[in-house]
Amino acid sequence: MTKSEYSSNLLDLGYRYLIDTLPCYLSIQDSSLHILFANQTFRNDFGNGTGKLCHMVYKGSPDRCPSCPVQKTFKDKKVHISEETVQLYNGSMAQMIVHSAPIMDITGNVSAVVEMSTNITKVMEMQKELTLLGKTMAILSHDIKNILEGLQGGAYVVDEAIKDGDMKLARKGWDITKRNITEISTVVQNILYSSKKRALEYQKVAPDEIVREAVALFQDKAKNMDIALRAQANRALPLVNIDPYSIHRMLNNLIWNALQACKNDNEKGSHTVVVRADFYDRLHFMFEVEDNGIGMDEETRNNIFKEFFSTKGHGGTGLGLIVVEKIVQEHEGKIEVLTTPGKGSTFRVILKIN
């Protein structure tokens, strides 16, 4: 090997090393969107995609992406940028910024396209957390102010009742105070859970016991609201591996929402909330919270898990169901919502038996 050939090989190795260690996914694709080349960073997170269709590798789909920047580059020979959600080799989802650029042949036609993708998932998560924090401060400052005014109002009624020796008025003032203490406690706990990353602490626990404990916690509140609150828990359920703290928080939010849905319903003579734990199928169990309150229309149903969307109008922040969804996702479960306007709602959380 001559000195020039040796230098050329070293240069080629240097270029390949540089391309393989780029902190982004780099691939070259032909006009049919088959991957001709992929760097090592790409192979680490998507497997060996060489020879495969890019949309099969990125999304596991036989259909081309509607906004595919590579196709656009083949058509107009220009650089294109898009944002895509893709699935990594380990099954997790990632948000990408995708750039495509043409590789021209000697006749000036596009012979292939270079696609460079940057994983911006963590950036998007940080942006979401900062947005959440800002919205939380703006919205909750108003809500907490209203709750504090309620506490002051209740305390004033109690003070006046003590002066007059009126126990009936004192009980009324104390009820107002307790209601606002519950509200501010729920708000603060949901803020802490939604804004702080907490490692789950899994334990083997009995789902029926968790349901009975949650129902017992709200029994007095339900009685004061003239709502029948019942537990229906299957004792045959095995011990399951879950984080009891977060599951309690999830059930607390669902039960409180169900009680509020009943309270806001003026059409029925009586109201009931039922909290269940039972088998869903051979491999899964479920928690259910069912109420015969006001129910939800389709638009409300489609928006309940969005940030700061509340069915309570000015009486809620919408954080409760965001926390519920977060807990279900952390446990790799799924949540179903069955609802009919005027009849009531059922929130069903399905988790693995493990």
Key attributes of the depicted protein:
354 residues, alpha+beta, Beta-Lactamase, Heat Shock Protein 90, 3 domains, five-stranded antiparallel sheet, five-stranded mixed sheet, 10 helices, 12 strands
Could you please describe the fold and organization of this structure?
- With 354 residues, this protein is of the alpha+beta class.
- It folds into 3 domains: 3-119, Beta-Lactamase (2-Layer Sandwich); 122-197; 198-354, Histidine kinase-like ATPase, C-terminal domain (Heat Shock Protein 90).
- It is built from 10 helices and 12 strands.
- The protein has helices at residues 3-20, 40-46, 54-59, 69-76, 121-164, 167-195, 207-224, 244-263, 298-303, 319-330; strands at residues 25-29, 35-38, 80-87, 93-104, 110-119, 203-205, 227-233, 240-242, 271-279, 284-291, 334-340, 344-352.
- The strands form 3 sheets. The protein has a 5-stranded antiparallel β-sheet with strand order 2-1-5-4-3, sandwiched between helices.
- A hairpin with a 5-residue loop joins strand 3 and strand 4.
Topology at a glance:
Blueprint: H1 3-20, E1 25-29, E2 35-38, H2 40-46, H3 54-59, H4 69-76, E3 80-87, E4 93-104, E5 110-119, H5 121-164, H6 167-195, E6 203-205, H7 207-224, E7 227-233, E8 240-242, H8 244-263, E9 271-279, E10 284-291, H9 298-303, H10 319-330, E11 334-340, E12 344-352
Parallel strand pairs: 7-9
Antiparallel strand pairs: 1-2, 1-5, 3-4, 4-5, 6-8, 9-10, 10-12, 11-12
Helix pairs in contact: 5-6, 6-10, 7-8, 8-10
